[in-house]
Every structure is written in structure tokens, then in C-alpha cells.
Specification:
alpha/beta, 7-stranded mixed beta sheet, 3-stranded parallel beta sheet, 14 helices, 16% strand
Length: 366
């Protein structure tokens, strides 16, 4: 896969890491000295949240591991675990990483709030934590993700564009948001509402447990029953997996309306080609993965993040966390070639396999 350069969202606070770290205690300096002495022989823990969404095992894990190896001359040891959407299991996995004495931990939390005590345990053990993709609570040392409110705004704007003349205050849409345990879901939701509120009527809205496509399917069936099939103009779906469940419910009701998505999963891209899903949000995983690896290696070696992290974010338990925020792109049938194909995420043959060949030819993707 061709790696795009790490792009940083504009308008961030230009505050130096040195100023942010002025309150660090001498123990942290000792940890840094110890880490620096290790050179490239560092031990990195990587914990990802689930494996239902295709991105984590197909993109995030191999990209992060590859970059860590590059940055350490292939000398780093990487310990990996996937929590399979189980917050309790992930807490146990953090304990294991602490027992194994990793130098730094890259953590994508299943439940951003529930993981707080585990992050504190890691800090107490002298292990710095890089929050990956989701802003975990607790004393994290760095964070990388996408501009999540911008993701929601991008989805909302795309839905309004798809509705065209039907984007009126009387037009009814259904919103299917992500899990309340994921802080990103709240930001996607906020961004989408900032665009959609006042422009259309949100007839039904759901927060979907575990981002489950099956749950999204049930929610869409309930919305169709409550609102009436003929009264639904479009659907805001927070990601591609749920969009799949939603579209199944829409088809069963004989409906074809614009549906949004996120993650540019292969199935989502194929649905876009086929005209079943209007758009997805393309989030280039390489810049996010590279940023996580760069920050983790720097922290493990006791180096400054000044040249890597130009942004600052705050959570309910941490302020001015050095961060890298990566921009996103609205993916429609019109720019598939210039996004996921150009960046090497998928080949034309992968997207246009089997029943999608004719649809691909129709839009000039062959």
C-alpha cells in the first residue's frame, strides 16, 4: 500500500510539548533515560478493539507493525491482542502488557471510559499510552485519530447533497449512530447534527450497541414500522458495517434511499458502485497508523513528540494531549479511482469482482 504523508488538521493550538510537560515529575525523567538507553530494542504493546470491522486486522495492525519495524531497524518486539469488542477482556490484556513490561502501549479502547483504570495502571508501571483512533480516558501520553466531528459533517453534507430538492424541513430521515461506549460516535453524531438540524426532520434516531450491523438492521426495521416506508427520505448511518444491515432492511421494505457510511470497507465501496449506498467516509489508515507508530517509538525511547504531534486535544481526564488529527474524504462513485484505488487500499479487480463487474463498467471502473 502506498502511504500518504501524515496530514494534520489546521487550526490547532500551537502549544509546545515542553510547556505542556513542565509539571512532569523526576520519575518520568528517569523512565525517559531508561527508555533512551534501549535504543531500537523496545517492546511495544498493541491492543485493538474488535475484529468485526474489517479495517483493524486488514489495515491498522499490519500498518502499525510495519512502521514500528521500520523505525527501529526491525529490532522492536511487538505484542498484539484484539479485544473482540469485550471491554473486560481488554482490561485483562492491558494487565498482561504490564506484566510483560512493554515500554509503550498503543491502545484502541473498546470502552473509552471503562479503560480509564487500566490506563492509570499502565502509567503507574511506567508505561506510556498512545490512544489510537478513540480518545481513551485516563493519563494518556499521546493520541491520533481523524477529525471526528468533520467526519459527521462530511456525512451530513453528503446526505443533503444526495437528497437534492428533497432536502427540506418536512423530509424525514433516520439517524443510526454508533455505540455510546465509543467517544468517536458522539463526535460523529455532533458533527452530523450540526449540518442536518433545521434542514431535515430527524424522525427516528438510534445509538447502536457495539456498532452491530444486526442491531442496525433491527433499528431500521423499527424505524420503517414507526415512520412509514414511504415517508423515509434518507438514512444517516455512522459506518459501513451498519449501513449493510440498514440497506438489508430497506430492501426488504422495497425502499431505495440515500444511505451514508464510513470506513470505506470493501463491501461498502461495492454497495456504492452498485448504487445501494450513496457514500462512505474514506479515512486513510496509513497516516493514522504511521502517526501512532512514530509517537509510540518516540515515547518508548524518551524522545520529544514536538516534531510529530502538532495538535492538542483534551478528554474528561487529560488536557492538552499531543495529537495527530488526520483529514477525511467523502467517498462516492465519482472518486473511487482517486481515493481507495489510487492509495492502494483496493484493486479494481477486488471491487469489481463477480456481480459488481457490470456496475463497475457502467461507472467507468474497469
Amino acid at each position: 500500500m502506498r502511504r500518504a504523508a501524515v496530514a494534520v488538521a489546521a487550526g490547532a493550538m500551537a502549544v509546545s510539548l515542553a510547556a505542556c510537560g513542565s509539571a512532569k515529575e523526576s520519575g518520568d525523567k528517569a523512565d525517559s533515560t531508561k527508555s533512551a538507553a534501549k535504543g531500537d530494542n523496545i517492546k511495544v504493546g498493541l491492543l485493538l478493539p474488535e475484529n468485526k470491522t474489517a479495517r483493524y486486522e486488514k489495515f491498522d495492525r499490519p500498518l502499525i507493525e510495519k512502521k514500528i519495524k521500520e523505525l527501529t531497524n526491525n529490532k522492536a518486539t511487538i505484542q498484539y491482542n484484539n479485544a473482540r469488542q469485550d471491554a473486560s477482556l481488554q482490561a485483562q490484556q492491558v494487565d498482561t502488557m504490564i506484566t510483560n513490561k512493554v515500554d509503550v502501549l498503543i491502545l484502541d479502547a473498546v470502552d473509552a471510559k471503562a479503560i480509564k483504570n487500566s490506563v492509570q495502571k499502565a502509567k503507574d508501571a511506567g508505561i506510556k499510552v498512545v490512544a489510537y483512533d478513540r480518545l481513551a480516558e485516563g493519563p494518556i501520553s499521546a493520541y491520533t485519530s481523524f477529525d471526528n466531528e468533520e467526519v459527521g459533517r462530511t456525512q451530513g453534507e453528503a446526505l443533503l447533497k444526495a437528497l437534492g430538492s428533497k432536502a427540506t424541513k418536512s423530509s424525514k430521515i433516520v439517524m443510526v449512530n454508533g455505540s455510546v461506549t465509543d467517544p468517536n460516535a458522539a463526535q460523529f453524531k455532533k458533527g452530523a447534527h450540526s449540518v442536518l438540524d433545521g434542514k431535515v426532520t430527524i424522525a427516528k434516531e438510534y445509538d447502536t450497541k457495539e456498532w452491530s450491523p444486526d442491531n442496525a438492521n433491527s433499528e431500521m426495521e423499527a424505524a420503517i414500522s414507526a415512520v412509514g416506508a414511504k415517508n423515509i427520505a434518507g438514512v444517516y448511518s455512522a459506518n459501513d458495517g451498519m449501513a449493510g444491515g440498514i440497506i438489508t432492511a430497506l430492501k426488504a421494505a422495497g425502499l431505495s434511499v440515500p444511505v451514508t457510511g464510513q470506513d470505506a470497507e470493501l463491501a461498502g465501496v461495492q454497495r456504492i458502485v452498485a448504487g445501494e449506498q450513496y457514500m462512505s467516509v474514506y479515512k486513510p489508515y496509513a497516516p493514522e497508523a504511521d502517526a501512532a507508530a512514530e509517537m509510540a517509538v518516540a515515547l518508548a525511547k524518551g524522545e520529544s513528540l514536538d516534531s510529530i504531534a502538532k495538535d492538542k486535544v483534551s478528554s474528561g481526564s487529560a488536557t492538552d494531549v499531543p495529537s495527530v488529527l488526520v483529514p477525511v474524504t467523502s467517498l462516492t462513485k465519482d472518486n473511487i479511482k482517486d481515493t481507495v484505488i489510487k492509495d492502494g487500499v483496493y484493486s479494481v479487480s477486488e471491487i469489481c469482482a463477480g456481480k459488481y463487474a457490470a456496475a463497475c463498467k457502467k461507472i467507468g471502473l474497469e
